[in-house]
Please model this.
Amino acid sequence: MQVLVFHGRSRGKGQHRERVDCTLRRHLWQAAHSVRHCADRHGQPRYRASRITEPEKQIIVQTAKHSRSEQALLFARNFFKHPKMLGSLIPSSRFLIEHLMKQIRWDKARVIVEYGPGVGTISQELLRRMSKDAKLVVIEMNADFVDFMRRQFPDPRLHVVHGSAADVDAILARLGLRGADYVLSGIPFSTMPAEVRSAIIDKTRAALRPKGKFLVYQFSRAVHPHLQQVFTNIRREYEPLNILPAHLYYCSA
Ligand SMILES: C[S@@+](CC[C@H](N)C(=O)[O-])C[C@H]1O[C@@H](n2cnc3c(N)ncnc32)[C@H](O)[C@@H]1O
Model:
């Protein structure tokens, strides 16, 4: 619990927060994780006094808020540097994330792959819900996001890969994984070169296990015909409560 005392002294002084190193973050993450598993039957947090005291609770909440604003800021900064690669100024909304989460059978999901996690808005929900022995492989091209993800989520189930979704086959092979149960993707298919887009869609189809699903969210419908060329079953949904409103495609072989 030393970590919590450290954060307590730094509360309100932004410059100290940067000093939190990976080990401290790991302890904090673990503490926050225990809190989450202490929810009552209405989903409200219930804290075990023996494990987490009231001042510690405040510090966890403060840090979580800080993390969210740090995430939003980093995302926006990178949007201005690489608008085409990001495709959006802010991360996905909780409404959009909820759509995606509902598609996943958590008892069956052993390997989940996410393309373009950005600052981990969706990855953190995946990690929260997936089982202890499942794996999450996130593939991200932006080095700032890769660095952030590695610092922010020191979870042994997570593999953060700096690379392109176009290399998903080689990446899974390198990690010794035979295929994925789910692949999630919000990478901007409409602004990337056509040959990269088809390589990603083809390789994703090949990487999916027999009952696997490719869950795609986009801000335009442009990708739909390209998905139809490769996947037999595609279910469509729409989420207006996102900036920008999102089209969702749930694809299976
Ligand atoms: C719209 S953002 C989505 C961020 C996050 N998943 C979310 O929903 O908030 C798209 C992300 O895809 C990444 N990206 C773009 N092309 C990629 C590619 N070929 N392979 C992997 N990541 C890519 C970008 O760097 C960016 O982080």
